[in-house]
Amino acid sequence: MSLAYANGKVNKFDPMEYRSIIRIIGLLVALFSATMLPPAVIAVIYKDGGGTAFMQAFVMSLLLGLILWYPNRRAKADLRTREGFLVVVLFWTVLGTIGALPFVMSELPDLSLTDAIFESFSALTTTGATVITGLETLPKAILFYRHLLQWLGGMGIIVLAVAVLPMLGIGGMQLYRCEIPGPVKDSKMTPRIAETAKALWYIYLTMTVVCALAYYLAGMNLFDAVGHAFSTIAIGGFSSYDASMGHFNSPAINMICVVFLLMSAMNFALHFAAFSKRGIRLATYWRDAEVRMFLLIQLVLVMLVFLVLLGQKLYQSPEVALDKALFQAVSMSTTAGFTTEGFATWPLFLPNLLIFASFIGGCAGSTGGGIKVVRMTLLSLQGMREIKRLIHPRAMFSIRLNNLPVSDRVIDAVWGFFAAYALLFVVIMVTLLATGLDDVTAFSATAASLNNLGPGLGDVASHYGDINDVAKWVLVMGMLFGRLEIFTLLVLFTPTFWKS
Amino acid sequence: MSLAYANGKVNKFDPMEYRSIIRIIGLLVALFSATMLPPAVIAVIYKDGGGTAFMQAFVMSLLLGLILWYPNRRAKADLRTREGFLVVVLFWTVLGTIGALPFVMSELPDLSLTDAIFESFSALTTTGATVITGLETLPKAILFYRHLLQWLGGMGIIVLAVAVLPMLGIGGMQLYRCEIPGPVKDSKMTPRIAETAKALWYIYLTMTVVCALAYYLAGMNLFDAVGHAFSTIAIGGFSSYDASMGHFNSPAINMICVVFLLMSAMNFALHFAAFSKRGIRLATYWRDAEVRMFLLIQLVLVMLVFLVLLGQKLYQSPEVALDKALFQAVSMSTTAGFTTEGFATWPLFLPNLLIFASFIGGCAGSTGGGIKVVRMTLLSLQGMREIKRLIHPRAMFSIRLNNLPVSDRVIDAVWGFFAAYALLFVVIMVTLLATGLDDVTAFSATAASLNNLGPGLGDVASHYGDINDVAKWVLVMGMLFGRLEIFTLLVLFTPTFWKS
Ligand SMILES: [K+]
Ligand SMILES: [K+]
């Protein structure tokens, strides 16, 4: 490969840019310290003794933030694309690390540093894999904090996916450049991200409130309703119970979960378009090719699971089978990872099928993980184009999405994303196998981390507490790679990024 | 997607074309009937009683061939691209079915129709998965026939990969259009394929003779030397012993196998270029980017396996460990699938690593299976280009292979190939799981069939005799898809192919 033509200045990072980045991270850390306060309040309300760790974590993270921010408070270089990668990666790694503080300092649960980091990154990336068992015995403060971390992570993901990644051009997401709320032609990142974030924040908050209300009305107590609304809208999948959603054993709650998971797995820019004027314009959704494909995939999966469950006569009535099929198919394929009783005992091909479905995942610009429906759609269209090209070698076919032609650049980027995803999958799985995990565990854990799904099969079917520490760190990397759409993190490992 | 511009006539198949295709298939079947004669002769020499089935099969296939050929003997329409797909697919399916005749009619082994078809397709696609155990007890005629089928299949593959697929433009193989021996600008397929086949035939035969001689000198008897040379050059992996190459327990034989596997896994068009003038010009190989990448991959794999074996102290000396590592890494990653004693007991991540390596497979235009090294190279280059594009969004980067720019059309086709491969993998694996196979068996059997590798793990580690019939048929489809580079077979399933 050669650099045939380069337009635009290509500079090394200068000190001012580094200081500006440190200033932003310092501000974020200081803001993030406020996350420790609600759990502290919860501790006071429930008198569960879990408050100290959070007050300590609050002070420590606030101080750290100020220490990073203060010396660089006047360093306000405009962020360009390249610095964007660094800020995004630092955002997740620094907050993930600081988020582990309460887990480290709590007496219950008594987690090692590795486990604390795993739990924090799993929450913040909305993966929802847990190393903790006996959730029912934990202080409410810790339970609330886990939900809250997922919720904040989900918010971060939406801003990342709707506002930042399209500008960075990750994995074909430049496709969405024109759909972002805010001034379109502006190349400066900061004001635009702030404006977009504000708009998305209202939608995210509204959906969470409505979801919590629905859970409450369906029979959850207030604490569970808010907590589970947090991890539903974030498609995180954390629960306050070892039995996950199965604890409630309520078709109504399952159905609410399904509805809000489906909404949260759609592009939030679409919610923005549908919600912004008076009322909700449902046509906005149906006009979107990705949403149509997404719903079609859900329908096919639910039907398939339902028919297999019926055929195997696993449940006493078709209604129960449909409830289980609908809930589990949507929960897994949107990458939420909530479970109900019995999933682990389903015939082996169903869990595997749903794990494969999590590779497709949610729509772009949602809180869902996986490769994303729009990319899968583009890959299918390209696959069909290749077949047509084979039959009619001299004809020209263009790929169109939502009646607009898709540029070759976008298609290239989607392919690159897909290949990197596959390669990373193999590397992580082989590494896990080398640490001693068995085949089923390694395969499902790799999928569960890379797709930000959460639960796996084999030794990680219910929790990740029993696997070795090296495997845990590898999975943390997997979650990060998945959440940052591979390339945001991958570029930092290339010499080109730092040198030229 | 829309047909923006179509150049060239697009017709339905006319009766003359169908008759012409039937004529060709009839000729092929009649020619193929001769394959039954050498085993019949072997049966006479060894007095093993296996000859009757082969004489019956000879008569039946010769008659069938003549019945297909005679009424259409004057139907000589020129084959165009589209008919090419049909002929290639019919070639493998018809010969695979007829190749099963001796297995069906033999008393030893006593195979069901499904098993006979499985064994025949596995041989002809050079997969080398077997449903038979107790190979040592079989008539020599059957053993020789299995080797011979692989050898003919290997020859078919080379002609397919060097002469036919580049013209059909399958999976980016139009890249090799200009490298094919024979008249380049000619769009008529038949004369060109005949000419290319003749040139390749000499190389293939020469390599086989030299390989057999080397095996013989290293201690095999004449029967084993010829048989194993057949399945080595075809990268088929069939042996006459249940213990495969491990039966001979000879580092010299292992080394001969490795050398000829490496040669057979290189592009035969390259052998043609290197061999055609006086002597062998080794520089021809080294100048080829695919060969360099291929050898690099082999080196890395062998070193990795060697170091793990050393670290685990599985063998008494480093020499033995190196012998085992070299043989097994090359055997698996070239998709031969020969094994030696102990492979199945290696630490779990090594068998999996080598199964993943079989996805890369051999070079294009070789007898090796898998996705092929050149495609993996192009995918890597494209991946690196995507990273560079992210860092320098306004720059233009071109992908070059062997100092020539690679067209976007080729890159597109390679991506399409990769995605179809991945999709097919998931479909086959989930189907196998649904038939009741466990995770490890389903995963490895899918890889082993799609990559034309042969041996798997779990229930198919030593043979495929114990799995259910539906799984066997699915795997036969997998072998065919893999051998026909997915798209050759896939196009036949599209309405576009038949209608427009
Ligand atoms: K999740
Ligand atoms: K093979």
Automatic annotation (TrEMBL), chains A, B:
<feature type="transmembrane region" description="Helical">
    <location>
        <begin position="84"/>
        <end position="105"/>
    </location>
</feature>
<dbReference type="InterPro" id="IPR004772">
    <property type="entry name" value="TrkH"/>
</dbReference>
<keyword id="KW-0813">Transport</keyword>
<dbReference type="InterPro" id="IPR003445">
    <property type="entry name" value="Cat_transpt"/>
</dbReference>
<dbReference type="Pfam" id="PF02386">
    <property type="entry name" value="TrkH"/>
</dbReference>
<keyword id="KW-1133">Transmembrane helix</keyword>
<keyword id="KW-0997">Cell inner membrane</keyword>
<keyword id="KW-0633">Potassium transport</keyword>
<keyword id="KW-0630">Potassium</keyword>
<comment type="function">
    <text>Low-affinity potassium transport system. Interacts with Trk system potassium uptake protein TrkA.</text>
</comment>
<feature type="transmembrane region" description="Helical">
    <location>
        <begin position="21"/>
        <end position="46"/>
    </location>
</feature>
<feature type="transmembrane region" description="Helical">
    <location>
        <begin position="199"/>
        <end position="218"/>
    </location>
</feature>
<feature type="transmembrane region" description="Helical">
    <location>
        <begin position="353"/>
        <end position="374"/>
    </location>
</feature>
<protein>
    <recommendedName>
        <fullName>Trk system potassium uptake protein</fullName>
    </recommendedName>
</protein>
<feature type="transmembrane region" description="Helical">
    <location>
        <begin position="294"/>
        <end position="315"/>
    </location>
</feature>
<feature type="transmembrane region" description="Helical">
    <location>
        <begin position="52"/>
        <end position="72"/>
    </location>
</feature>
<comment type="similarity">
    <text>Belongs to the TrkH potassium transport family.</text>
</comment>
<keyword id="KW-0812">Transmembrane</keyword>
<feature type="transmembrane region" description="Helical">
    <location>
        <begin position="410"/>
        <end position="434"/>
    </location>
</feature>
<keyword id="KW-1003">Cell membrane</keyword>
<keyword id="KW-0406">Ion transport</keyword>
<feature type="transmembrane region" description="Helical">
    <location>
        <begin position="148"/>
        <end position="168"/>
    </location>
</feature>
<feature type="transmembrane region" description="Helical">
    <location>
        <begin position="473"/>
        <end position="498"/>
    </location>
</feature>
<feature type="transmembrane region" description="Helical">
    <location>
        <begin position="252"/>
        <end position="273"/>
    </location>
</feature>
<keyword id="KW-0472">Membrane</keyword>
